[in-house]
Design brief:
- The structure is a single chain.
- This protein has 199 residues and is α+β, with helices and mostly antiparallel strands.
- The chain contains six helices and seven strands; from the N terminus they run βαααβββαβαββα.
- α1 crosses α3.
- The longest helix is centred in the middle third of the chain and has 15 residues.
- The chain is globular and about 50 Å long.
- The termini are far apart.
Length: 199
């Protein structure tokens, strides 16, 4: 695994890459914080959830530079947050946040927002021009968080299957420079809203 700089955390948490050596710790984290899985997958985390997250593959033909699975650990060694992020997804400078999860015990303390700010700074230092993510319509709390962090909707997609559920999702982006939404859509035409089909 390539080692490189990771986001600095002023929260007192230590960031390091998650590997298959951490699969039991990550699985325990998912089981202890099941809300996301119930909302998005329609069920509790599956027994192989952590392994699948660490081993996940992008769709065939999708280009990218690097995938990170970053864990945030307390001094005791407890995993309390994790992020999955892919650099240069389909276009240079577009970084996709696949999963951003903070322990429910840390909610309401500003830690998630601080970790995200530091993730933004780190990604920008590494060459990111936009952060991109998908949020399911049913995950109202997450959508509110992302909007508060400065993300805007680029488009929606219907019929996305996740776990046992089929969702409508919002593709949201956040510029990390002075680039506009139109600049982004020029690089990422797949996120452009399709014109209605005339009959």
């Amino acid at each position: 695994m390539q080692q490189g700089p990771l986001p600095h955390s002023s929260t007192g948490l230590v960031a390091r890459e998650i590997t298959l050596l951490d699969v039991e710790r990550l699985q325990a984290f998912f089981v202890e914080n099941p809300d996301y899985f119930h909302i998005v997958h329609g069920c509790a985390p599956q027994p192989d959830e952590a392994r699948d997250e660490i081993d996940d593959r992008l769709p065939e033909g999708w280009s990218f530079t690097r995938k990170w699975k970053i864990g945030y650990f307390e001094g005791t060694g407890a995993l309390v947050a994790m992020v999955s992020i892919v650099s240069d997804l389909l276009a240079p400078g577009v970084w996709h946040v696949g999963l951003f999860m903070v322990a429910s015990s840390l909610r309401g303390r500003g830690i998630a927002r601080q970790l995200h700010r530091e993730l933004e700074d780190w990604a920008a230092e590494q060459g990111a021009r936009w952060l991109r993510l998908s949020v399911v319509f049913a995950n109202v709390r997450a959508e509110g968080f992302w909007r508060a962090c400065g993300y805007v909707e680029a488009r929606t997609r219907d019929g996305i299957e996740l776990g046992q559920l089929r969702h409508r999702v919002r593709i949201m982006i956040k510029p990390l420079s002075l680039d506009s939404l139109e600049d982004y859509l020029t690089l990422m035409p797949r996120d452009r809203v399709e014109p209605p089909v005339s009959v």
